[in-house]
Design brief:
The protein has helices at residues 30-35, 47-55, 59-64, 79-85, 92-96, 98-109, 123-144, 148-165; strands spanning 13-19, 22-28. The chain has 172 residues and is mostly helical. The chain has 3 domains: 13-43, no CATH class; 47-109, no CATH class; 123-165. The protein has a two-stranded antiparallel sheet. A hairpin with a 2-residue loop joins strand 1 and strand 2 (22-28). Helix 2 crosses helix 4 and helix 7 packs antiparallel against helix 8 (148-165). It starts with 12 loop residues before the first strand and ends in a 7-residue tail after the last helix.
């Protein structure tokens, strides 16, 4: 959508105003929004600022952990740097900062487990495959506990799911 003011640049700012119960909307590019005084350089939204705001601990937490420094062994990124920048340095950072990242990820995404998007034509197949994997893990646990009746039930559930998606399985 083009900017309502200059009609040249892509609009990136949406402003909604209510005056006497009358709603008015305007879409502006960043430059026009600055020129008209709707925003200044300090108010421009950034993902970095969003993450930093979410991660900003209250002052009591800061005092309690003043001497504690979390640092990724792989890339050297400290938790403080992550809080300031809003991004991790490497894949190992997720393990290093797991205790602090898990609640954040759950708060933002609603879950700690990444599900992602699945193409509609593959959705059912991939869900069944995931269910089979989870059942196999459960079956290993019940076999370790010598709960063979439950293991047999899980085996049958796995077999039924595999038949549903057309996996050939030669169970003897």
């Amino acid at each position: 959508m083009l900017c309502d003011r200059c009609k040249e640049r892509e609009a990136s700012i949406h402003i909604t105003k209510y005056v006497d119960n009358e709603k008015s909307e305007i879409y502006l590019c960043e430059q026009c929004a600055k020129e008209t005084g709707h925003i200044d350089d300090n108010e421009v939204f950034s993902f970095k600022n969003l993450i930093a705001g979410i991660l900003n601990p209250n002052m009591q937490d800061l005092e309690e952990n003043r001497d504690e420094v979390f640092k990724c062994e792989n890339c050297g990124l400290t938790y403080e740097e992550f809080r300031r920048e809003g991004k991790v340095g490497c894949s190992e950072c997720y393990n290093t900062f797991e205790d602090k990242l898990s609640p954040l990820i759950k708060r933002i995404h609603g879950s700690e487990k990444h599900i992602g998007k699945i193409p509609k034509d593959k959705d059912k197949y991939l869900r069944v495959k995931r269910d089979i994997q989870e059942l196999k893990v459960e079956m290993e646990k019940v076999i370790e506990d010598e709960n063979f009746e439950r293991a047999a039930e899980i085996r049958d559930e796995i077999y039924a799911l595999e038949q549903k998606i057309g996996v050939n399985n030669n169970v003897q």
